[in-house]
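Example for tutorial group B:
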């Protein structure tokens, strides 16, 4: 659980300290060594140690100078200074910069273990106090910052200082817009907490604002100092993807897209760019991150024709409908239409059944249809969805507008449920299931929610938790980790988190409570 870095220019001392750290009763999962201050600073960027044991008297930069630099870039890190000299001034300086303990060489194993335990206690104490304030205070602050942001972005205000405590005239802004597939649900605070552990220099209200802009769409705005602009973006996006992966327990490929605006002195400009970049996700089915510069070629603002689709629908000819959709798909990709043009085409295509067919009872389900074309994975995915809507309309007309294809739809949902029951321990993707059933993914998602009164992702979670309860109650030999693995959760931490959300108890508490019943 805890990561330790040992910094000393003498190899024998490093190995000796490593041996003593390994004997600690703490769960120290990883130990790395550095032979100089320069090597330690470079290693800390990737390793991100919780605790650093540092020699004060190395050649070149000394341990105290290194400690100052480490705490500046990673405030959470706890440092233990090791010295061959019992100098009061050294100890004073160490205390002044926040070093946890000051040990003399040769380092006594028991003293070292106590110093490590002190470090861990301080880390836990800080995390607890941070968590205690986050629920109420963070909510209040979040609400206030969102109001400021809305006011500014709507041009009613021009003062950025109420939003960003770290704002200065030299500040540079960057906006990031995150879209999550509608079949998923996340707590954005949980994702951001994971991120901010790796990026402690960012803080809500100081230089960061984030909030849900629309359902499952999140806006993040950063107020960057000049020194942040060179190395911030790419590393941050990678960390954001990793946080999403951890939040979902894996298996979220292509279920999210990140739109990135350019760095700008104008906050409104980078926000608009991040949203515009995201809206073009339908053109980038193999990209999880879309920069504003990526969409420059998609500038054709002419409106694609719907006359071929109208004619095929009027003829009630399903083959012609498929051909018209394929022709449209080729044209959309070839001509590099803008997002707005594709959105206009989509809106017109969806109302054609009501204009052309004699009877089409779609009101209830139509309210669930995606409003924005960026809800689709690709141009092909959007056109496939339109084809599914047209097939539904034709089916309903053939049944006199009174029945629809209810039997077929119910059979499809039963097939989905059976698949989940058989494969709950594996990674389950509605996209894969829809491919096997030859039903459009988005259409199947809407159909599942309509019939089951719950979205697909939540149904899978409930199915896994239900099976986990059985394992916990009837198989005392199974460890919590075993149950997590057997029910399709990629790690024990994520399993425990979801189990508690669903039941109000941890897996261990659930097992113990049921034992006593």
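The residue assignment follows.
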């Amino acid at each position: 659980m805890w990561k330790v870095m040992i910094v000393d220019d003498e190899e024998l001392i490093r190995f000796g300290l490593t041996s003593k750290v390994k004997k600690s009763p703490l769960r120290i999962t990883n130990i790395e060594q550095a032979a100089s201050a320069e090597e330690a600073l470079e290693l800390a960027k990737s390793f991100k140690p919780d605790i650093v044991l540092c020699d004060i008297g190395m050649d070149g930069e000394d341990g105290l100078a290194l400690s100052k630099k480490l705490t500046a870039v990673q405030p959470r890190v706890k440092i233990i200074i090791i010295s061959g000299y019992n100098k009061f001034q050294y100890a004073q300086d160490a205390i002044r910069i926040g070093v946890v303990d000051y040990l003399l060489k040769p380092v006594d194993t028991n003293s070292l273990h106590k110093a490590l335990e002190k470090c861990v206690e301080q880390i836990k104490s800080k995390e607890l106090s941070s968590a205690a304030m986050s629920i109420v205070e963070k909510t209040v602050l979040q609400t206030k910052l969102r109001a400021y942001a809305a006011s500014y972005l709507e041009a009613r205000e021009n003062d950025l200082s109420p939003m960003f405590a770290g704002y200065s005239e030299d500040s540079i802004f960057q906006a990031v817009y995150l879209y999550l597939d509608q079949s998923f649900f996340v707590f954005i605070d949980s994702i951001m907490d994971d991120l901010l552990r790796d990026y402690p220099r960012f803080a809500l209200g100081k230089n960061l604002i984030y909030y849900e802009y629309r359902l499952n769409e999140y806006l993040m705005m950063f107020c960057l100092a000049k020194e942040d602009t060179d190395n911030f973006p790419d590393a941050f996006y990678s960390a954001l993807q990793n946080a999403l992966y951890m939040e979902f327990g894996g298996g979220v490929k292509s279920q999210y897209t990140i739109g990135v605006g350019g760095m700008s002195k104008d906050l409104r400009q980078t926000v608009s760019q991040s949203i515009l970049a995201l809206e073009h996700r339908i053109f980038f089915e193999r990209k999880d991150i879309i920069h504003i510069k990526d969409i420059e070629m998609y500038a054709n603002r002419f409106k694609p024709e719907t006359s071929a689709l109208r004619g095929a629908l009027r003829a009630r000819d399903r083959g012609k409908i498929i051909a018209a959709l394929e022709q449209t798909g080729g044209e959309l990709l070839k001509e590099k239409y803008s997002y707005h043009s594709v959105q206009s085409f989509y809106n017109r295509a969806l109302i054609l059944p009501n204009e052309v067919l004699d009877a089409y009872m779609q009101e209830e389900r139509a309210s669930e249809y995606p409003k924005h074309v960026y809800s689709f994975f690709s141009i092909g995915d959007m056109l496939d969805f339109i084809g599914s809507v047209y097939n539904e309309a034709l089916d309903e007309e053939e049944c006199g507008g009174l029945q629809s294809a209810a039997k077929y739809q119910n059979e499809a949902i039963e097939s989905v449920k059976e698949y989940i029951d058989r494969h709950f321990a594996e990674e389950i993707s509605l996209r894969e299931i829809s491919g096997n059933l030859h039903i459009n993914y988005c259409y199947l998602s809407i159909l599942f929610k309509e019939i089951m009164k719950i979205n697909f992702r939540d149904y899978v979670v409930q199915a896994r938790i239900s099976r986990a309860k059985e394992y916990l109650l009837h198989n005392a030999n199974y460890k919590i980790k075993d149950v997590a693995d057997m029910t399709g959760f990629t790690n024990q931490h994520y399993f425990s988190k979801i189990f508690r959300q669903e039941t109000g108890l941890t897996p261990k508490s659930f097992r113990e409570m049921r034992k006593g019943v």
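The chain has a mean pLDDT of 82. Compare this with the pattern of hydrophobic and polar residues in the output above.
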